[in-house]
Amino acid sequence: MTAITNNDRLQPINIFEYEKLAKEHMSQMTLDYYNSGAWDEITLRDNHAAFERVKLRPRILVDVSDRNLTTSILGQPLQLPFLIAPMAFQCLAHPDGEVATALAAASAGVGMVLSTLATKSIEEVATACDKFPDSLQWFQLYIHKDRGLARTLVEKAYKAGYKALCLTVDAPILGQRETDRRNEFALPPDLHLANLATISGLDISQEKGESGLVSYFAQQLNPAVTWHDLEWLQSLSPLPLVIKGILRGDDAVRAVEYGAKAIVVSNHGGRQLDGAIASLDALAEIVAAVDGKVEILLDGGIRRGTDILKALALGAKAVLIGRPILWGLAVAGQVGVSHVISLLQDELSVGMALSGCAKLEDIDPSLLTMPRL
Q: Among 51, 69, 75, which residue's Cα sits nearest to residue 295?
C-alpha cells in the first residue's frame, strides 16, 4: 500500500491519529458536520465509551497461528466482518468521495452502504466497482414525502446491481445538531445530491440561522412512515430489506415480522436522539429477541479492532464503520480509506490471537465481562 505521509511525518498507525490528521484536510464546517452529535453529545461519546466498559477474558493455549476473518452477510462472502456505514456528502472530505470509498471497500473485500444523500450517484459508484463483480454494495434509503422518489431510487439501485436495501428508521425528523445550526451548514455550490438533484432538483441549500440539512428533512422527508410502509417498500424490488436504527428488542422482533432480513443496531452515530442508549449496550437484548431469525449488525463507536471483537462476541455478525472512514478519505482519498480498513483488520486479527480465537466462529460471549449496572 502507498504510504500516507503529511509534510514528511510518519503515517498514522491508528484511527485516533487519522482523526487528528483529518482536521488539517477539511474545512471547519465539514469537520463539524462529520464529527458532531445531537445536543450535548452524550450518546455520541457513550457509543465508544460502551466498548471501554466491556472487558475481554482471553482464552490461552489455543493454536492461533492461522487466523480466518472471513464471513458472509445475507449469503454474500466478505473478507472481513464489516461494512462501511452510509454517510452523506463524502465529496466534502475528498473530491472522489463515495467512489473512492467504494473502491477501497471492494478491493479489501468489505461491504459498503451508499447513502441516499451521496454526492456521487448510484450508477457512478456501481460502475467504478465493475472490476470487483463480487463486491457487496447496499443502498441506504430515506423515504421522501414524494413516494415516487423512493420508487425511482430503489429501481435505480436494483438495476445497478446493489445487493440490499437499507432503510434508516431513526430519523423521522433530523436530530438537533447545534454546531451545524451555528455554522448554517450547506453544501458548497459545486456539490449536489447526486441521486436526487437529477431526478427532482432537490439539494441542500443555505438557510439563515439554521442547518440546511434540518430544513431539507423538514420539507422533504416523510415523518409519517410506519411499519405498514415496509410492505409497500418491499413491493418495489426483490432486494432484501435491512432495517437500520433499532435499539429495542421488541422493535427488532417486529422488524422480523414485517420481513426484514437483517437489522442494524444503531443510534445514528449519536446524531439523532441525544441520551439514547449506546449501540453496544442495546446489542445483547436485540440478539436475544430475534433468536437467530435474522442477521444482526452493529453500528456506532468502532475505533479499534478489539471493538469489533467485542461486538461479535455479543452476537453481531458484522459491524458498520463510520467516521474513521471519513477521516481516512479526507487524509488520502482511496488510499486513506484502504489504510483505515487495513489497520482495523490487523487489530482485529491481533485481538483474536490474543483472545484465543482462530476464526470468527470462536468468538462468543464467554470472552467478555460485562459492566455491572
A: 75
Distance CA 97, CA 74 (A): 26
Q: How far apart are CA 77 and CA 280, in angstroms?
A: 24
> Given pLDDT bands bounded at 50, 70 and 90, which one contains residue 198?
confident
Helices then strands (H, E): number in the chain? Answer: 14, 12
Q: Which of 94, 192, 268, 339 is catalytic?
A: 268
Residue 7 has pLDDT above 70, yes or no: no
Instruction: Specify whether 48 is catalytic.
Output: no
| The C-alpha cell that represents 314 in the structure block | 455479543
Name the residue among 3, 1, 25, 95 with its Cα closest to residue 330: 25
Residues 6+ apart with CB under 8 A from 113: 83, 84, 85, 86, 137, 138, 139, 140, 166, 320
H-helix segments, the chain: 15-22, 28-35, 42-53, 97-108, 122-128, 147-160, 178-183, 197-200, 212-220, 229-234, 249-257, 279-290, 305-313, 323-355
Closest to 121 (Cα-Cα) out of 102, 101, 104, 98: 98
Predicted pLDDT of residue 371: 83
Whole-Å CA distances, 143 to 172, 190, 202:
9, 25, 14
Mean pLDDT of 115-142: 97
